[in-house]
């Protein structure tokens, strides 16, 4: 019975890809910045999705990609898929809606800071140099990370 259930899941391309992290690859579009929404849209437009970091292994893989990224800035952040746009304080991943169960927040974050124009920090980016997470206003422009699963 379990075997048939697995076959049904494999044949259903619309289901979330539940593959091991070693089959995931991260990509940073060259010379492109966007707000968080544009990052999600760009990743989708090229057949990828905004990056999810589900565990320490994936964090390590992303760390390697970020270390290879050339930058003139001492402190640079890259959008990832985590956000609390649905419910303030409840972070979920961009398109899958899965709860964020692994994180690496900067001390004191997420703080949901409020800007002068009334916008709250709701979208998450990762620091290139320290790999810690911080929440930002989703409308800010940053580089971003897309992911895709390797073909088997």
From TrEMBL:
Signal peptide range: none
InterPro entries, A to Z: C-type_lectin-like, C-type_lectin-like/link_sf, C-type_lectin/snaclec_domain, C-type_lectin_CS, CTDL_fold
SMART domains, A to Z: CLECT
Keyword line: Disulfide bond
Keyword field contains Ribosomal protein: no
Domain of life: Eukaryota
Protein name, entry field: C-type lectin domain-containing protein
């Amino acid at each position: 019975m379990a075997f048939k259930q697995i076959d049904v899941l494999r044949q259903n391309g619309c289901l979330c890809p539940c593959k091991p992290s070693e089959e995931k690859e991260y990509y940073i579009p060259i010379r492109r910045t966007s707000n968080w929404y544009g990052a999600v849209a760009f990743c989708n437009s090229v057949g990828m999705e905004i990056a999810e970091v589900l565990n320490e292994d994936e964090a390590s893989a992303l760390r390697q990609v970020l270390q290879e990224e050339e930058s003139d800035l001492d402190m640079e952040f890259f959008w990832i898929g985590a956000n609390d746009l649905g419910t303030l304080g409840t972070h979920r991943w961009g398109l899958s809606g899965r709860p964020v169960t692994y994180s690496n927040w900067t001390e004191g974050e997420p703080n949901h800071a409020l800007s002068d124009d009334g916008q709250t920090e709701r979208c998450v980016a990762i620091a290139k140099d320290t790999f810690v997470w911080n929440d930002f206003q989703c409308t800010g422009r940053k580089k971003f990370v897309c992911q895709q699963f390797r073909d088997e």
